[in-house]
Design brief:
alpha/beta; 13 helices; 18 strands
Length: 382
């Protein structure tokens, strides 16, 4: 049974303020004493990191491309059992998906979770047309439960008044937030989006700033009441308690120790995967590739994604770990690496015109382009 109040924060497109609003709202409710569980629609790790920091709770992903509907319901049910409210941040535009039907869109996730949707609109250089855009979202799929609108980047009181009256008249929706144009209300970004909070020395200051803004300009009480309108959802018991097969220790005895590199260079992990390893009986041993040695008695090593390129010099200087990882691989230690973790297993990493030594587990060299070479889901047959 899913019986947790919930909100989906959506937008008309990217860069409308969804992350700042979601993170700030999570922290506002956290400071009021509520237990918040954040979710991010899509496979994004970086927004997930900011949401986790804002709510002071692990953030989980809901993604209808990587997960089927039962898995999404299962994850949501398990992870909201003890929560007062869940905040789901959408991605891109509300209806943006992979096909004509928008099959993996934020709208589809909101319908599946029966979550009230709060639509954020960037009001830069537009007035009454905002109502037309919101009304279009309402009409495109009337099963999407749009329950309120947040107006962002308002130029002043007159600007706000015209848009508010238009939305209330034509869309019959409450305006639950009016945020003026503000400086220093965005989180810092770079080549692949936001800078992860683990790399941002003033992450807490940025979140505190967002929290103050949301407390001042959002109708937090009305948002809470809207979240409580979300109906309960019956979920099959077999999805609420998915089994995790125990590890076959293969005669080794004792716990299975799985090393995980977690630091500002490698921080892209889905908490669901770590939780599944723990439920299966694994002992998780976290350490840093920037400063630590390889922990003893590991039975496997998991290296997630991140930004090794921005830490290449420091990673290269940790010679003892680089050599230990290569030696362990040669001796048969199972290593699972993805994204930035795979880059670390190469021989060299080229970044901004310089070459940095990596572990040399794989006979490859890695170069990082100045611009992303693609963005979105990809299906590859091998």
């Amino acid at each position: 049974m899913i019986n947790c109040p919930r909100l989906t924060i959506a937008g008309l497109g990217g860069d409308t303020g969804k992350t700042v609003v979601s993170v700030g709202l999570c922290r506002v409710w956290k400071k009021q004493g509520y237990s918040i569980v954040p979710f991010k629609k899509g496979p994004d790790y970086i927004d997930m990191g900011w949401l986790s920091r804002g709510a002071d709770h692990p953030c989980y992903n809901v993604d209808l491309f990587l997960m089927n509907k039962d898995q999404v319901l299962s994850s949501f049910s398990m992870n909201t059992r003890n929560a007062n409210v869940a905040v789901i941040e959408g991605n891109r535009g509300l209806y943006d998906g992979m096909d004509l039907e928008g099959s993996v869109s934020t709208a589809e996730v909101a319908k599946l979770l029966q979550s009230p949707v709060i639509l954020i609109v960037d009001c830069t250089k537009v007035t009454r047309t905002v109502a037309a855009m919101v009304l279009g979202c309402q009409m495109l799929d009337q099963d999407v439960p749009i329950k309120g609108v947040i107006l962002n980047r308002l130029a002043g009181n007159r600007h706000e008044e015209i848009i508010r009256k238009s939305i209330e008249h034509y869309c019959h929706l409450p305006v639950v937030g009016t945020i003026p144009k503000l400086k220093n209300i965005t989180f810092p970004g770079r080549h692949l989006g936001l800078i992860p909070p683990q790399e941002h020395p003033l992450a807490e200051d940025a979140i505190d700033n967002a929290t103050e803004v949301m407390a001042k300009y959002l109708d937090v009480e009305q948002l809470w009441q809207i979240a409580r309108e979300a109906p309960p959802i019956e979920v099959s018991s077999r999805f609420e308690n998915p089994p995790s097969p125990p590890f076959n220790k293969g005669g080794m005895g004792g716990l299975i120790n799985i090393g995980i590199i977690r630091d500002s260079a490698f921080q892209f992990y889905y908490p669901e995967n770590i939780d599944a390893l723990k439920r299966a009986g694994a002992q998780i041993v976290e350490f840093s590739a920037l400063t630590d040695d390889l922990p003893p008695s590991l039975n496997a090593l998991y290296i997630g994604g991140g930004f090794p390129e921005t830490h290449a010099a420091t990673l290269s200087k940790n010679v003892r770990l680089r050599q230990a990882v290569k030696r362990a691989a040669e001796e048969g230690l199972p290593i699972y690496a993805e994204c930035g973790g795979l880059m670390y297993l190469g021989e060299k990493l080229f970044w901004e015109g310089k070459a940095y030594e990596m572990t040399g587990v794989l006979p490859i060299v890695i170069g990082v382009s100045k611009k992303p070479q693609g963005h979105g889901y990809t299906v590859i047959e091998v």
